[in-house]
Amino acid sequence: MIMNSIDGAVNKIHGIIPPMFTPLSGQDDLDVDGLGRLIEHMLAGGVHGLFILGTTGQALSLSNRLRRELIDCTCRLVHGRVPVLVGITDTSLVESVSLAQHAARSGADAVVTSAPPYYPIGQPELVDYIRNLAERLPLPLLLYNMPTHTKVKFGLETIQRVMELECIAGIKDSSGDMVYFNRLLALHSQRPDWSFLMGPEELLAQALYMGADGGVNGGANLCPRLYVEMYEAALANDRARVVKLQDSILQISGKLYGVGRHPSSLMKGIGCALSGLGICSDTLALPYRRFDTPERIQLQNALAEMGITAAEPWPHVSLEVK
Amino acid sequence: MIMNSIDGAVNKIHGIIPPMFTPLSGQDDLDVDGLGRLIEHMLAGGVHGLFILGTTGQALSLSNRLRRELIDCTCRLVHGRVPVLVGITDTSLVESVSLAQHAARSGADAVVTSAPPYYPIGQPELVDYIRNLAERLPLPLLLYNMPTHTKVKFGLETIQRVMELECIAGIKDSSGDMVYFNRLLALHSQRPDWSFLMGPEELLAQALYMGADGGVNGGANLCPRLYVEMYEAALANDRARVVKLQDSILQISGKLYGVGRHPSSLMKGIGCALSGLGICSDTLALPYRRFDTPERIQLQNALAEMGITAAEPWPHVSLEVK
Amino acid sequence: MIMNSIDGAVNKIHGIIPPMFTPLSGQDDLDVDGLGRLIEHMLAGGVHGLFILGTTGQALSLSNRLRRELIDCTCRLVHGRVPVLVGITDTSLVESVSLAQHAARSGADAVVTSAPPYYPIGQPELVDYIRNLAERLPLPLLLYNMPTHTKVKFGLETIQRVMELECIAGIKDSSGDMVYFNRLLALHSQRPDWSFLMGPEELLAQALYMGADGGVNGGANLCPRLYVEMYEAALANDRARVVKLQDSILQISGKLYGVGRHPSSLMKGIGCALSGLGICSDTLALPYRRFDTPERIQLQNALAEMGITAAEPWPHVSLEVK
Amino acid sequence: MIMNSIDGAVNKIHGIIPPMFTPLSGQDDLDVDGLGRLIEHMLAGGVHGLFILGTTGQALSLSNRLRRELIDCTCRLVHGRVPVLVGITDTSLVESVSLAQHAARSGADAVVTSAPPYYPIGQPELVDYIRNLAERLPLPLLLYNMPTHTKVKFGLETIQRVMELECIAGIKDSSGDMVYFNRLLALHSQRPDWSFLMGPEELLAQALYMGADGGVNGGANLCPRLYVEMYEAALANDRARVVKLQDSILQISGKLYGVGRHPSSLMKGIGCALSGLGICSDTLALPYRRFDTPERIQLQNALAEMGITAAEPWPHVSLEVK
Fold first, then answer.
1. pLDDT digits (tens, 9 = 90+) for D111-131
2. D94–C128 C-beta distance less than 8 A
3. What is the value of ipTM here, to two decimals?
4. D178/A183 CB distance under 8 A
5. Cα B118–B53–B280 angle (5° rounding)?
6. Residue D287 in contact with residue D60, Cβ under 8 Å?
7. Is C177 in the B-facing interface, judged by CB distances under 8 Å?
8. Residue D11 binned pLDDT confidence (cut-offs 50, 70, 90)
9. Going by fewer Cβ within 10 Å, which terminus of chain A is more open, N or C?
């Protein structure tokens, strides 16, 4: 995706682009104050963009109305300081297109879609779907590979076929399959303008080492500077620093996302930590719920143990995580 | 679910309730004439109810607007002759409730939900979700077990827990897991008013033999009387007739749904056959598409070979399937 | 498989053929006395054959030496009263053939194989494997569909292709997939001499209702007469009796196999119950172990609650299970 | 694992340790000449050890007799030039121990086991199994994580628990799950003497970058020097060289293992390529078979295209792969 950067240069999407947690005050109510604080927290940490309405943003659990409200508020609050990417994944193509049109009107920079959830599809159907969707979109499109949630992977041949579409600008891979990601990177020469972004933060360093453009990592909601520093260290091939930062990232993902037993623990962990730092509410939309008291305490202890605190107003989280 | 039947008796949902194929003339356009013919075709075949906006009805692929239009048209066309059940499955609870309210206003008799797709959830979260959904619904709720699509099964303990909710009226099981279904039936005594309905038509006979209340079988869009006769034969324990009808049902599912390789072949097969019989269009919503010419020919040949034809206007399909 | 029955008639494998639990006194030691009592217990219950060295018999966990000892002892103890089927499943074809030769020398009546475990294979490789194995065997071969353990299913086309091999005599299906089993039964006319046997006991009644020849059900180690009575009731289409017996079978599988959380609970439950009835030791071969005390007590309570006791010497277990 | 190296220093298992392809001339016949050439080919390429009877070596498909013959021949031919690791994975613990004893007598340096295949087990059973196995072994044990074949993963807690066993010397991870491998590496400090080895060659560079001790990569049968050079480049943090070598490795795995559709294509590809280079026969043990002519030609073309040839006698394969 080619974009005008602040200094007028032409640039593609790169760097750390947190998949933003959606601050809620109820099943269908946005925590607008929390949203503002969360955005400032991440921008102060140096992130290179924001991705709203992704999996971590609980997009699919939100009403169509709330999704639009979130787009409007985020674009207004970010006010062009970094690119805003908007998730438009929906089970219905018509609704995805409608959401993309709203995003364009609000000033977003790009949209992002996974495969359509619910109906099992094969690769030919996925190619067909993406082609039909892409041609109706008013903004550049990033693909989002999320097979644990959609039940289908963007196969390598599928990627090669949709690479012919000018309006597609890259892919975020959250499969956790590094063999696949390495094969994606081998396609980079076919579309040098594409962005190849890593989802799971535990793989950020190794993805960047092999040529990825950046990361869309949940933990960057909480500790944005840690991920930005990893981005810089890996690009600089500063191996000693990478190994040290990797240790911090593994601690965060192990201690904050690993509390409780259900697949929701990532979202609950990020929400609970953001709430503990005074940034926003950790209310979740059903089918998820925020942690109960025992898990809250366990998580607050983990935060304290790792030295993650919130100074006023929303400072960078200390990197002196041991 | 207790309902007033035509003769004034009190009755629960039972018998053959086809999961209605949704006739479309475009991605976001209803084939209203086809819808009328399809409804009359099924009612003429003696079905005991209709289930719209299920998986076979492509509900999740349709826009919110189109789903509402379909509810309105179907309720108007059925005009109380049989109960109308409306699928409200959505990734967002708010949207599910909103759709249920629309269904109630249109005169539908019950709503049906699967687990919310997309986000992986555990059984405690599923119980929590169903409780929260059920208490906001204006109509009785049937559960819909569809783990191939939603990634989560309604566990037996979950069923036992939500059986405490008065407004839940039964379950349609499309898991294809007959051990599970047998264990469901063993819970019948806890809620004698619940309906236990079998999804996969290949298991209809055996489900009824062990005490199920009916079937929600895709093939009943096409050959409604065949499934109604199976219902009657199995209830009457007429084993010779059951075995003969089973042969016809296996032929239909084998020859009509097994064309092509992708998981969409059931929907494509039903649509193509309905189109071949002159009942409605076989346009599908993306991510699916109707069959191309080679598969169309293969399927029309299978129809002819099985002797399935459409006399005027929409007669019962011949049961003399060999 | 055509066999001479006691009365001189020609007969295929049918009826209740328990997959025999292997009584052990150590990781590599047979409990020969327990083996004798277990065989008499099952024969007294009226079973129509015995299947040794199946999954329930822990075959794959046993040494090659112990497998041979078990074959010898069982054939000697049964002494032709019922057919003895011997599992020869192994990761190595050479070892499977060797075991089959030993079984033939010991007087066994047939051998049984699943797909070779460990290496993932496709259907063409499975056809090739079965053909190569079958032609080297000195005894009729039954196929054993066990995809949860072998990772590959005997596809319907595979079955049709190996049906051409005269020496194959039938299939035991333990997939639990009743749609598949119904499709298997539809192939019966191609090989009327084949035996179609149901593994999971919860599906025995429905399998027989649709035309299966019998069942290979773990619970028949414990309560052989219960399964024999179900066989007779289902064949006689005595629906009221079937429903009553089904209730007992569901109780046994629910209460005895459902103790503990691991996939080993079926084997642990059968072993523990047999031990509680004084029939044999419940020692298991690694990677499994018999229940610890809390689960033992829970299981003994379940046995008592269901009224399953052992009179002297090894009488029929009471069918007055409530 | 602490071993005496040639110069008397103490060393743990490290570097490139090819999982040796087993040259066969029949289902139960070893190609002894081919074995000699293959061993010399790999040693000439600079590999740091050999792992025989692994998945690539078809161990589980071989008879017990042939496995012993292979151990004897290999140990004799290697004659102490590099450590020989012997796979003892079996469905039966007794057979695994017996094989390990044979390996010790033959002069092997260590044994390797995956989880026992066939029976599904939980983590507590896996810990129990490994403990029982380890205490009966005469040689150091490496664990082998291969969940696609065994159906169970060595969980992180399981690893932490068996780390207490002195005789366990490390782990080879073939799960392809780099998040998991990164978490394994984080346990390195608990057992600095453990070896952490990467299976999938596409991940070798990134594993070494984060601290792995080496790789057990199938392609090193064919192009041993390529993998040895990658090992050296990654340890030296020579990123430009790593990226170049990664391109060659991705080509090999893409073009040689990706021919044909079945999971056997890795073994077929390696065998076919070794045969094409004149090193050994590509006969495979059932359930696998070597490629048919069309795939052979396709693969020979790929070899030629990549410039992989065999000069006399078995020189290093050219690294000038483009």
1. 999 999 999 999 999 999 999
2. no
3. 0.93
4. no
5. 130
6. no
7. yes
8. confident
9. C
Q: How many helices (H) and strands (E) does chain D have?
A: 12, 12
How do residues B122-140 score in pLDDT, each as one tens digit? 999 999 999 999 999 999 9
End-to-end CA distance of chain B: 37
Q: Chain B contact for C266, CB < 8 A?
A: no
Q: How far apart are the first and last CA of chain C?
A: 37
Cβ of C211 and B247 within 8 Å? no
Parse chain B into domains and list their residue ranges.
2-225
Helix (H, G, I), strand (E, B) or coil at D110: strand
**Interchain contact C29–D (C-beta under 8 A):** no
What local confidence, expressed as pLDDT, does residue C192 receive? Answer: 96
Q: Are B164 and B127 in contact (CB under 8 A)?
A: no
d(C-alpha B120, C-alpha C67), whole Å: 44
Chain B CA closest to residue A96:
B63
Nearest CA in chain A to B130: A287
Alpha-carbon distance of D97 to C65, in angstroms, equals 14
Selected residues 211-250 of chain C with any CB under 8 Å from a CB in chain B: 211, 237, 239, 243, 246-247, 250
Q: Which chains, if any, share at least 3 CB pairs under 8 A with chain A?
A: B, D
Q: What's the half-sphere exposure (Cβ side, CA atoms, 13 Å) at A320?
A: 4
**Alpha carbon distance C13, C23 (integer Å):** 25
CATH of D2-225, one of 3.30.300.20, 3.30.390.50, 3.20.20.70, 2.30.30.180: 3.20.20.70
Contacts of B210 in chain C (CB under 8 A): 205-206, 243, 246
Residue type, A312: E
**pLDDT tier at C321, thresholds 50, 70, 90:** very low
Q: For residue range C266-285, what is the model confidence (pLDDT) as tens digits?
A: 899 999 999 999 999 999 99
Q: Is the CB of residue C155 less than 8 Å away from at least one CB of chain B?
A: no
B126: chain A residues, CB-CB within 8 Å: 287
For residue C43, count CB atoms less than 10 angstroms from its CB and return exposed for 0-12, middle for 13-18, buried for 19 or more.
middle
- Which chain D residues touch C288 with a CB distance below 8 Å? 119, 121, 125
Distance of CA D204 to the CA centre of its chain: 13
Distance from CA of B254 to the nearest CA of C (A): 9
At A169, the amino acid letter reads A
Answer whether C288 sits within 8 Å of D62, measured CB to CB: no
Under an 8 A CB cutoff, do C182 and B203 touch? yes
Contact A291, A300 (CB under 8 A): no
Residue A318 has pLDDT above 70, yes or no: no
| CA D226 vs CA D42, D220, D250, D321: distances in Å | 11, 7, 12, 10
Contact D119 C149 (CB under 8 A): yes
Residue in D274, D159, D287, D285 with CA at minimum distance from that of residue D224:
D274
State the Cα torsion D300-D305-D307-D309 to the nearest 10°.
10
Q: How far apart are CA A208 and CA B292, in angstroms?
A: 43
C-alpha to C-alpha distance for B34 and A238, rounded to whole angstroms: 66
H helix or E strand, kind and range, residue B318: none
